[in-house]
Amino acid sequence: MKRIFTALALFLLASCKKDDVAIIAQPQANILVAQPAISLAATAAPTNAVNVKDQGAKGDGVTDDTKAITNALLYAKSTGKANIYFPDGTYMIGQPGNGGGIIKLVDGVGMTGNGPATCHIKLTSGRYNPNSIFYQDYVGMPSIGNLTIQGIDFNGNLPLQKFDADYQFCHALSINNGKNIEVKNCKFQSFRGDGLLFGDCFEPTLNKRIVTNVNVHDSEFFNIYREGTMFCCVNGASFYNNNVHGDGYLVGGVDIERHSVNESVLNVSVYNNTFNFADGYGPAERGGPKVRYRRAVTMGFFYNGYKNGIADSLSGHHKIYNNKIYQGQIDCWGIINVSISGNCFTNVYENITGVNFLTTAAINIADPANTKGLIKVSADNNVIKSAIGNGIVFHGYTQAQANANTITGTRSDGINLIATSGYFYGNTVTDAGTATQKASGFIVSGDSSGLIITTNQATNTLSGTARTMDYVVKIAGINNGKVAPKIQNNKGKNMAAGIISLYWLQSTFAQLLNNLAG
């Protein structure tokens, strides 16, 4: 294992653009880890704010400042102030709160500190199934918004708490209904739940509680048990320039999740982030061996799924782009109208057999429930260096596309298309498979009417029996689609077996043109 992650350190140094990350030592793992160059500069005290120390807060790391912070929020609201201000210090949250949380957020009142290096809000230790720190009381304050939270380190003190095995509801901030919310230049660490939770789920009527216009940026997420940030029942959100790393992430670094038909989960963008799971491990609840490999971004519709099993227009239009991902993947489960582009993956081999909540592909676009109408998901211009599984998988989608991806060193086929149709152009796959279990640039199975695979390149860099790739394109099963696939203008260099392999029972069911060696 030590050799593997020494190799990972070297691999990280060589991947993507080095000038986009600062390499720092992590002595606890004895490896080098890439971190984004996020600014944690001090935030000036706002003029339109209530100082929490004027309301009795001490910030001495000992005194329970719960009541003083609550009073500051209420006083700011009553006096028309837009913020409460935390001078440098450590503000302890000692009260237990209720199932919703401990401190109620207030509409129109934000929170400001001088930066997460010097301003800390921390749960006291010794709690059993602790509640969230800040939350929206949607009975007393049904909507909150027009607020900014910045310059604060939120700490759930996870190692010193006690939990039931299935408990995962201690969040830093939980907001169920509102609009115009910005979180920036903060740190979220050690929570047995989410760093940030936006939206609500399982409502009896459509969008009874929804959050719109959310921006989370230039912040750090460290050792978060469930999700760094969760977006459920939201319309319009951005997550960018953040650093997500450490232990945990049972579900993912960012989770864009629809739970029921009475939610809209639309227009979420995740971009320019670093998801570095090389410096931590997934939680034991995954089962199987302990691994670093986890979901960086996951999008899904779970539980009962779409009404009558037909995709509707209330989930999708998400954009996941320009992220750097180490020991991680992007999942898209049953969501439509999604763009996944310009992401850079660096994954060294880990055996994740038997580990829950994970698939092996760096980009996995699939349907867990045989949903009809899954369309328009694209994976373009991604750079995938992954020794764990496929580079990209599509399963059960039409009007799909994967263009101009660079895929290197996958242990199985570069791009795996299962019951999928669409347009797949200009991809480069190098050294997929292993010497003992060879793989192809593309492998195709299931019904795929009108599938087009064109102008792709597959290359073995090794020779003789050491070659790992057999074909550029391999049709591996019966295709009952009405229109035969078009496979044309593809090239293979140094393939072990050939350029195109058709399924033996349908040896003429393909339109082949100008597929060449060289």
From TrEMBL:
PROSITE patterns from the UniProt entry: PROKAR_LIPOPROTEIN
Positions of the Rhamnogalacturonase A/B/Epimerase-like pectate lyase domain: 50-195
Pfam families: Pect-lyase_RHGA_epim
Superkingdom, natural source: Bacteria
InterPro entries: PbH1 (IPR006626), Pectin_lyas_fold (IPR012334), Pectin_lyase_fold/virulence (IPR011050), RHGA/B-epi-like_pectate_lyase (IPR024535)
Entry protein name: Rhamnogalacturonase A/B/Epimerase-like pectate lyase domain-containing protein
Species whose genome carries this gene: Mucilaginibacter celer
Taxon lineage: Bacteria, Pseudomonadati, Bacteroidota, Sphingobacteriia, Sphingobacteriales
